[in-house]
Design a protein that fits this description.
The complex is a heterodimer of chains A (265) and B (277). By secondary structure, chain A is mainly alpha-helical. Chain A has a single domain, classed as MetI-like fold (Orthogonal Bundle), CATH 1.10.3720.10. Chain A is built from 12 helices and no strands. The relative contact order of chain B is 0.14. Chain B is globular and about 75 Å long. Chain B has 277 residues and is mostly helical. Helices cover 75% and strands 0% of the residues of chain B. Chain B folds into 2 domains: 37 residues, no CATH class; 230 residues, MetI-like (MetI-like fold, Orthogonal Bundle), CATH 1.10.3720. Classes of the chains: A mainly alpha (265), B mainly alpha (277).
Chain lengths: 265, 277
């Protein structure tokens, strides 16, 4: 018994050590590479060049705006739908769930290919005709991409509260539908919505396929362009992107923990 | 009037997911004048296109099988390996980050690690006198791309399979020990029969995940590696196949493959759901 225990513990340590080195080496290597820009010494030169590049500021800013628009539109689309399915149309749940999982089945490149054909400038809805319309299309494509994450977060949140009782109590006090959603449901599942939002942010901020094929000046295509033309800046950008992803995920944990420490709210 | 509440969602899904996809699927069966034809599907068998599917299939297979096995091992070590308590939450948090750290930056990271000037390449040459590039290795190749994909495949596997491992009851192991069963017998007759649908299902998800990925491959290899998403990308940008409807057929082929993988996943998941219910 104890020999078997020791054996499995040793095996577990080996698995962890191999795993950790596979996952940490690229991070260390990328960081090290990003410091090599000045010959013969380590420096943050590559980061200074990146942060000073007006293209970086413009594309990163653009992608942040797109991400925020995506999050807002995603919340407006998903929360009322999930709420309504929970409250009134439980029979629709499998269908709605299935649709929200479709973006994991249909590759992003296929979806955007469909957009380009269906919404080209000679179609009935020429969404690729002007820049603003294309921005709107890009946001829609991002809402689609993030649908699985957003819906799952919100659905999990709704499962932890008593939707029916809350709704009936609010109705008894004379609240209308919009008030119930905004002032009763939203605050009660805010941590679930926030984790969906941060996950969406992490997915959208460096997205390449949609932005590139819709020809919008987003951060993803900028990254690709720098990668094809520069030596050290890409590593600095990869480090920045990793930190952004890490921060988004970290914030999810922070808000998830808040909910657990305030169970009576 | 109940259905009014879900109308916006269904309209959105139709306009921005279902109709655009359907448009391509119909186009796959039409020629340039809009007449019905199967020639586009036949054209998928052209060597250039077929080889793209084959390489994509191989990379997705390799990265989902390797990612599945390694991810399972990591999850096993964290859940059942009697390691210090901080390891499991750390692994889960890291997996959440790494499974989302895909796309262009991931390609940069692997170029800085295993590219010609990468840290690991240089260290191996300096201290072990091993030049991995003289062995035929290249980060721009099949092996290189698979190795890169594992960076998001393994964490995804960890995230999916950990709950299944947590579902293994301690009592089962104890009962097995009491009856004189060995570790091998425990895994062979008790744990694996419970776990295999989750493991196989998760691997199918990993397969889909790799099959549709564009950004990592494009940033890593440019258009030097002929895989389906990159060929389709080039086709959309500039009709490299000189037949727009062949592009639709390629999209259809992708959906059929990822759709089959997901159908398999759903069948396997319904198996595990029934058991746990």
């Amino acid at each position: 018994m104890s020999a078997a225990n020791k054996e499995s513990r040793l095996g577990a340590w080996i698995a962890m050590a191999v795993g950790a080195s596979y996952f940490l080496l690229p991070l260390i290597a990328t960081f090290e590479f990003s410091l090599r820009m000045k010959r013969g010494e380590y420096s943050f030169e590559a980061y200074e060049v990146v942060f000073g590049d007006p293209q970086f500021q413009a594309t990163f800013g653009y992608s942040i705006v797109m991400a925020i628009a995506t999050i807002l539109m995603g919340i407006l689309l998903v929360v009322p739908t999930a709420y309504w399915v929970h409250l009134r149309m439980p029979k629709l749940r499998p269908l709605v769930e299935f649709i929200t999982l479709l973006p994991l089945v249909i590759p992003a490149i296929v979806i955007v290919f469909g957009y380009l054909r269906m919404y080209n400038s000679s179609s009935i809805i020429p969404l690729t005709g002007s820049e603003h319309a294309t921005d709107f299309l890009l946001v829609c494509s991002y809402v689609t991409l993030s649908l699985p994450y957003m819906y799952r977060s919100v659905d999990t949140g709704l499962r932890t509260i008593d939707v029916r009782t809350l709704t009936e109590a609010a109705e008894a006090l004379g609240a209308n539908r919009a008030t119930i959603l905004l002032r009763v449901i939203f605050p009660n599942i805010s941590s679930a919505i926030l984790s969906g939002a941060f996950l969406t942010f992490a997915v959208v901020i460096g997205e390449f396929t949609m932005a590139s094929l819709l020809d919008r000046p987003a951060f993803g295509p900028y990254l690709q362009l720098i990668g094809a033309n520069r030596a050290y800046e890409p590593s600095a950008l990869a480090v920045i992107a990793f930190i952004v992803t890490w921060a988004s995920m970290g914030l999810i944990n922070v808000f998830g923990r808040n909910r657990r420490t305030l169970p009576t709210r | 009037m109940n259905w009014l509440g879900v109308v916006p969602f269904f309209v959105f899904a139709l306009l921005f997911m279902l109709l655009p996809t359907a448009y391509l699927m119909v186009g796959a069966f039409q020629d340039a004048e809009g007449h019905f034809t199967l020639l586009n599907l036949v054209a998928l068998l052209e060597p250039h296109v077929l080889s793209a599917y084959w390489i994509s299939f191989k990379i997705s297979m390799a990265s989902s099988i390797a990612g599945g096995l390694l991810g399972f091992l990591l999850a096993w070590a964290a859940v059942l390996g009697r390691l210090p308590g901080w390891i499991r939450p750390t692994l889960m948090t890291f997996s959440g980050v790494a499974s989302n750290f895909a796309g262009v930056p991931l390609a940069f990271a692997f170029l800085a690690t295993l590219g010609r000037m990468g840290l690991v390449t240089i260290l191996l040459r300096k201290y072990l006198d091993v030049n991995i590039y003289s062995t035929g290795f290249s980060i721009l190749s099949f092996v290189g791309l698979t190795l890169t994909y594992l960076y998001f495949q393994i964490p995804l596997m960890v995230l999916i399979v950990t709950p299944a491992l947590e579902g293994l009851k301690k009592e089962w192991r104890e009962a097995c020990d009491c009856l004189g069963g060995s570790t091998v017998q425990y895994w062979r007759y008790i744990a694996m029969p419970v776990l295999w649908p989750s493991i196989l299902g998760a691997m199918l998800l990993l397969f889909t995940n790799a099959f549709g990925a564009v950004a990592t491959a494009y940033a890593l290899t440019g258009s030097s590696l002929n895989i389906v998403p990159i060929l389709l990308y080039a086709q959309i940008r500039g009709d490299v196949l000189h037949n727009p409807n062949l592009g639709y057929a390629m999209a259809l082929g992708m959906i059929v493959i990822t759709g089959l993988a997901n159908a398999g996943y759903m069948v396997l998941r319904s198996k595990t759901d029934r058991r746990s219910a």
